[in-house]
Design brief:
This protein is an alpha/beta fold. Helices cover 27% and strands 13% of the residues. Bound molecules: alpha-D-glucopyranose (GLC). Residues 13-383 form the Glycosyl hydrolase family 13 catalytic domain.
Length: 504
């Protein structure tokens, strides 16, 4: 792949705990992932992004990192991670890892040192009393008291103390961590909570000094050539968002406006246009994201009366017509894959898995659940171990009992069941990603006007993508049908369906 492979890549997100379990302890691991690399190759993706794989007490699914230079023993070893990187590379699959610079774990060496020795607290935010009334993003106060009476700041769970980025040691540490992994051949880094690092009296979101950090990180990444920095930047203001993508900062960032957008033609058109308008002038490729490990699965979201994504579990349990949601998720997948830039596929999206909304409360593990006093169900419902094969749980996930239970209804959604079904979601993704490699990816689009309910555009290769979000069927522009998310009706494109046309 070229220097700029990331501009048009299809990136598959692996939530390691729930991908495939190689040693039978009920938790996904590197052995499981390595054994399934042929599946990912066959799916047609160009890169894998893994959620944090470091030693961690798992207070927040691994986003509480105890050691940035090793692998969580439940997942495997550093030697295995290195093998995984080279095996992926042999298959021409790039590897992107997650780096968490905003906060650490209370089990990290630095934090333990800070607890034992008050003079070693400068890498975190300690004070004699809470300096403000900030609330943790997971609920409750953002300050927790330690036995000697001081308090420390944690924007997330108390087990995730925030680093103090006014301390040069913190800067140096993360440059070293970047080099540690770049030296081991990783092709990119996804930066967790990227806009939150800098704190001041006025707040912590998107403060200007954060850009100095990423300018430096870009210098480091550039020393290695073909590497990519990807920001997790949730910001409503597109101009502020675009500042992270200036030529000397991050290469790309997740498009959460697209992910959150309701299934509505005008809203989607607005988000796509705004995305292109902010990215094009700075030469950064847009990204198209439908889901990840933090949000409601699209099949469930698109089947609800309110199809937007809302944080805080606000829509959890509201009725969902899963058949309708599934139909729309298929249409959305082809739309996302056709847009210019890179596209993300969160594991299980290619199987059309719905959100699991009826997990028993005592099994919920996401700190959001406990910290909100149970008012927010948390994110476990999109993190259920994948169904690979067989007629009953654990559906080939591994020999043991999966760390979160899989629903009975997933029998029909296993990889094995979908592989031979030409009309399955899995085959839609496979065919779509295959065509995408040849005809789509980086570039531009030209809109076609097919009325207010239809999103239609032609890409540089001549491929036309048409999505009908209206109530009734619509006629198609000229072209050969290359792929459709649903059956055409007498040559017309039905509601909630996307078609790809090539020039005839
Ligand atoms: C990011 C991650 C999320 C995690 C949080 C704190 O938003 O995607 O899973 O809980 O950061 O690290």
């Amino acid at each position: 792949m070229s220097q700029t492979w990331w501009r048009g890549a299809a990136i598959y997100q692996v939530y390691l705990r729930s991908f495939a379990d190689g040693n039978g302890d009920g938790v996904g691991d590197l052995a499981g992932l390595r054994s399934r690399l042929p599946y990912l190759k066959d799916l047609g993706i160009g890169a894998i992004w893994l959620n944090p794989w470091y030693p961690s007490p798992m207070a927040d699914g691994g986003y509480d990192v105890a050691d940035y230079r090793d692998i969580e023993p439940v997942f495997g070893t550093l030697a295995e991670a290195e093998k995984f990187i080279s095996e992926a590379h042999e298959l021409d699959i790039k590897v992107i890892i997650d780096v968490v610079p905003n906060h650490s774990s209370t089990e990290s060496a630095w934090f333990k040192e800070a607890l034992a020795d008050p003079s070693a607290r400068g890498r975190f935010w300690f004070a004699d009393e809470p300096l403000n009334d900030w609330q943790s993003i997971f609920g409750g106060s953002a300050w927790t008291q330690v036995p000697d009476g001081q308090w420390y700041l944690h924007l997330f769970a108390p087990e995730q103390p925030d680093f103090n980025w006014t301390n040069p040691e913190v800067h140096q540490e993360f440059e070293n961590v970047l080099r540690f992994w770049l030296d081991r051949g990783v092709d990119g880094v996804r930066i967790d909570s990227a806009a939150l690092l800098i704190k001041s009296d006025t707040g912590y979101e998107d403060l200007d000094e954060v850009h100095d950090v990423y300018r430096r990180w870009r210098e480091v990444a550039d020393e290695y050539g073909e590497r990519v920095l990807i920001g997790e930047v949730w910001l409503p203001d597109q101009e502020r968002f675009a500042r992270y993508l200036r030529p000397d900062e991050l290469h790309t960032a997740f498009n959460f406006d697209f992910l959150s957008c309701p299934w509505d033609p005008a809203e989607l058109r607005k988000v796509i246009d705004l995305t292109l308008a902010t990215h094009t002038p700075i030469g950064a490729p847009p990204t198209w994201v439908l889901s990840n490990h933090d949000v409601t699965r699209p099949v469930t979201r698109y089947g609800r009366a309110d199809t937007s994504f809302a944080h805080g579990g606000a829509l959890h349990g509201s009725p969902s017509d899963l058949e309708l949601g599934y139909r729309r998720a298929r249409a959305a997948a082809l739309l996302a894959m056709a847009l210019p830039g890179s596209v993300y596929v969160y594991q299980g999206e290619e199987l059309g898995l719905p959100e699991v909304e009826d997990l028993p409360d005592d099994l919920r593990q996401d700190p959001m659940y406990a910290r909100s006093g149970g008012t927010n169900p948390g994110r476990d419902g999109c993190r259920i171990p994948l169904p690979w094969s067989g007629e009953e749980p654990p559906y080939g996930f591994g020999a043991g009992t999966p760390w979160l239970p899989q629903p009975e209804s997933w029998r029909k959604l296993t990889v094995e069941a979908q592989r031979t079904d030409l009309g399955s979601m899995l085959n839609l993704y496979r065919t779509g990603l295959g065509l995408r490699r040849e005809l789509l990816g980086d570039g531009t689009l030209a809109w076609l006007d097919l009325g207010p309910d239809v999103l239609a555009f032609t890409r540089d290769s001549g491929l036309t993508c048409v999505t009908n979000l209206g109530a009734g069927p619509v006629p198609l522009p000229p072209g050969e049908v290359a792929l459709a998310s649903g059956q055409l009706e007498d040559g017309l494109l039905p509601s909630d369906t996307t078609v790809w046309l090539t020039a005839s």
